[in-house]
Amino acid sequence: MTNENTKLNRMKKSAAELSIISNVVLTILKIIAGIITGSLSILSEAIHSMSDFLASIITYFSVIKSSKPADYDHPYGHGKYEDMAGFIEGFLIISAAFFIIYKAFKKIIFGMPAETENHIGIIVMAVAVAANFMISSILIKVSKKSGSVSLYADGEHLRTDVYSSLGVLIGLVLIKITGHSVLDPLIAILVAVFILRTGFSITKKTLNCLLDSSLPDSDIEKIKAVINNFSNNVTLKENGIKARQMGPNKDIDIILQLDGNTTICECHKICDKIEEEIQKLFLNSSISIHTEPICYGKNCQHNCRKL
After folding, report:
1. pLDDT at 162
2. Are residues 242 and 107 in the same domain?
3. Which residue, 178, 210, 242, sits at the end of a domain?
4. Among 222, 233, 242, CA closest to 287
5. How many CA atoms lie within 13 A of 206 on its CB side?
């Protein structure tokens, strides 16, 4: 493992630990504020933070597991642990959203008890907005630098908290001004719908990784651009790139065609240079290059297909 990878793994672990600490503190504060004020929207946010906490625990262990090198049982590495963690996190987000919607409709149908003074709720939600904005920014920054799918999912999860907490905060202020308590469950439903959208987005992205969907077209084009820089020596075979995301890693297979007179030594040097250039673009990448003579076919004068 290179020094750069070791450094990134430490960053990922520290970011995951920070997420756990933040979620524990905010969950406790929201539960206390929700019980004191009787606000369903605050309790809904507390439930959301509980799912954040569970997700951050899953993220932490997936980051540790995915950082382990390939072994006999996992010859392609442990990157899929992060994809699985992201999928579970998306499921937790969706589950939390449906629970919030259920509680909100129940409160609308069966009535809403009068809320007590909600100053504490306003203060707690303001703190939650500031804390989640800071932590989510850190997680997403580290995830982009390291390619961590689970950290990205955790960061996006907390980013939904920024908007949902802000919505609850605005709602509490409006309730205080207008005295209309019905705003509380209505805001909770809006928060849940927003959370659902994020949950489905994360689940779709991580499921694509688990099912070995191809890398985005933009990444494929970057790989092609690197190969085109060596067009004097090699030609990319038609549909000669297969690439997938495996947790923080990218698994890239390439088929190149070279002149039949190219020596094995020359071919090896060219492939090494191409791999080096691609790894500059995608730090955590495993690249496999298969080479063929450009005349490889039925009409090959060197009878390559018969060898």
Report:
1. 80
2. no
3. 210
4. 242
5. 28
C-beta separation of 129 from 160 below 8 A: no
**Which of 128, 151, 155, 159 lies closest to 28, judged by CA?**
128
List the chain residues with pLDDT less than 70: 1-5, 65-80, 111-118, 209-213, 247-248, 295-307
Domain limits at 263?
Answer: 217-306
Rounded distance between C-alpha atoms, residue 273 and residue 128, angstroms:
49
Asked if residue 167 lies in contact with residue 39, where contact means CB atoms within 8 angstroms, the answer is no
Euclidean distance between CA atoms 52 and 150, whole angstroms: 12
**CATH for 262:** 3.30.70.1350
Residues across the chain: 307
DSSP-derived pairing of the beta strands 249-258 and 234-246? antiparallel
The pairing of beta strand 285-293 with beta strand 249-258: parallel
Are 106 and 12 within one domain?
yes
Q: Provide the token pair at 286.
A: 């495993």
CA 12, CA 107: separation in Å to the nearest integer? 41
The long-range contacts involving 69-73, CB below 8 angstroms and separated by at least 24 positions, are 69/1
The pLDDT of residue 25 is 87
Q: Is 145:8 a contact under the CB 8 Å cutoff?
A: yes
pLDDT at 118: 67
With helix as H, strand as E and coil as C, how does 196-239 read? HHHHHHHHHHHHHHHCCCECCHHHHHHHHHHHHCCCCCEEEEEE
158 and 24 co-located in one domain: yes
Q: Are residues 205 and 253 in the same domain?
A: no
Phi and psi torsions of 179, nearest 5°: 80, 10
How far is residue 170 CA from its own chain's centroid? 29
Question: Are residues 256 and 232 in contact, defined by beta-carbon separation less than 8 angstroms?
Answer: no
| Residue where the block lists tokens 């707690």 | 124
pLDDT confidence of residue 74: 63
**Domain total of the chain:** 2
